[in-house]
Design brief:
With 428 residues, the chain is an alpha/beta fold. The protein has one domain. It is built from six helices and 20 strands. The strands form two sheets. It has a ten-stranded mixed β-sheet with strand order 2-1-5-8-10-12-14-16-18-20, with helices on one face. Strand 1 and strand 2 form a beta hairpin. Helix 1 runs parallel beside helix 2, helix 1 crosses helix 3 and helix 4 crosses helix 5. The chain is globular, with a radius of gyration of 21 Å. The termini are far apart.
Length: 428
């Protein structure tokens, strides 16, 4: 019997030692736990459709250098923090100067702050379900700690620009932790971009801790090149009456994977998760989401839509878990999928696990193609077939794109979507 593949030891040797000692110790501890870690296979349930796309060669274990020119496709209207190959670049960043809001690189923390952060890291994610997040904990070279004191409000969105320069094979491990105090408010935009053509891996983890009444909006825009494997995880823990809103727009690649886990731990907490994915060629994108209703009187709303063209592959696995004490929960999940060719594939698996008896829950999933009757109607009115295809496809996802609350992100997403349509549809 062929032995299961394990993580190469080459991935267990981080090179950055400028971090405070408590974080170095945490990283070393996490690395020791990864020795002989089995890699996901088709028999690994939550990697069933994605394991064959995961290619971790030894040359990818090398940390990419944090040097070179930086730039961003977003016209950033306010605050910005730039990461280059997983390391923060202060000279390319523009920080808010507001009372009650602290933004620090992990490298700039004193020992007491680093020890407190080390106790908090990894507490928002189920690391058994999100296996590759453990690799980030063993390899992060730097990170960003964002702290909002009670009642602090960030007046403009904070853009986190993650750049990777793929001039040689290697990897980057960005890390972010957001501590949102009572009744604080922040909008965080994460943009992932790349340059270069060598095969690289980006393994990223972002964690949010929301205190009572905190309001956090998270926007994630993945636009890396076709040579970049991206494995990301976002963990969220919410307390009483807090609200978390997520908007994710992803463009496919050799492997795109995002795990989003939300725990509603305080009564009255709410979350809203929106996601749009488009794939073409032989690209792949996998979204796995989990919402844990732990406390009573919590609400969750989740809507994801996938479009797959050519021979590409999209995956959605959404799970809502209503715990026994989570009475009066209200949960709704909806996943719609559009196939633009006979060679494309979409796999969807919505899940509800309910242990409380006084709840309102619903979920649904559909997979289909463009309606020929609607196409014929548009063409018969003088609209070209290509334009008709674009109109119907954009209408399928535009409802979610229009809900993104930051104009610069909406415009960037729509520009990239138009490029996708140009490449996918030919004039008939």
């Amino acid at each position: 019997m062929k032995p299961a593949p394990t993580l190469s030891s080459a991935f267990l040797h981080p090179v950055g030692h400028s971090l405070p000692e408590p974080l170095v110790a945490l990283r070393k501890q996490r690395g020791s736990a990864l020795v002989d870690m089995p890699l996901p296979t088709r028999k690994t349930e939550n990697w069933k459709y994605s394991s064959k796309y995961l290619k971790l060669t030894d040359d990818m274990a090398i940390s990419l250098p944090a040097e070179g020119k930086t730039g961003s496709s977003l016209a950033v209207p306010g605050y910005k923090v730039v990461f280059l190959n997983g390391v923060m670049i202060p000279e390319a960043s523009e920080y808010p100067d507001l009372d009650g809001i602290s933004i620090q690189s992990f490298d700039d923390l004193d020992n007491d702050e680093a020890a407190d952060l080390a106790d908090r890291l990894d507490n928002t994610l189920d690391n058994n379900a999100v296996q590759m997040a453990r690799l980030n904990s063993a390899r992060f070279e730097d990170g960003l700690l964002i702290r909002l004191k009670p009642d602090a409000v960030l007046d403009q969105p904070l853009f986190i620009v993650h750049e990777v320069t793929a001039d040689a094979s290697g990897s980057a491990f960005p890390r972010i932790y957001v501590d949102a105090g009572r009744h604080s408010q922040i909008t965080l935009v994460e943009e992932y971009i790349s340059s270069g053509s060598e095969s690289v891996m980006v393994n990223t983890v972002t964690e949010f801790a929301l205190a009572d009444g905190a309001q956090v909006t998270s926007i994630r825009l993945n636009m890396e090149g076709d040579n970049v494997q991206h494995i990301g995880a976002t963990g969220v823990r919410q307390q009483r009456s807090s609200r978390f809103e997520s908007h994710s727009v992803g463009f496919g690649g050799p492997l795109r994977r995002h795990d989003l886990q939300v725990r509603l731990e305080g009564e009255g907490a709410e979350c809203k998760l929106n996601g749009v994915v488009v794939t073409q060629g032989k690209q792949h994108y996998d979204n796995h989401t989990t919402i844990e209703h732990v406390a009573a009187h919590c609400n969750s709303e989740e809507t994801y839509r996938n479009i797959a063209a050519d021979q590409s592959h999209a995956v959605f696995n959404g799970r809502i878990h209503i715990h026994q004490d989570a009475q009066k929960s209200n949960a709704d999940m909806n996943n719609k999928n559009l196939l633009l060719s006979n060679g494309a594939e979409i796999d969807t698996k919505p899940e509800l696990e309910i242990y409380a008896d006084d709840v309102k829950c619903a979920h649904g999933a559909t997979i289909g193609q463009l309606d020929e009757t609607s196409l014929f109607y548009l063409v018969s009115r003088g609209i070209g077939r290509r334009e008709a295809n674009v109109l119907l496809t954009m209408a399928f996802i535009n409802e979610l794109v229009e809900q993104i609350p930051v104009e610069a992100v909406r415009e960037t997403a729509q520009t990239r979507l138009n490029q996708f349509f140009d490449q996918t549809f030919e004039e008939a």
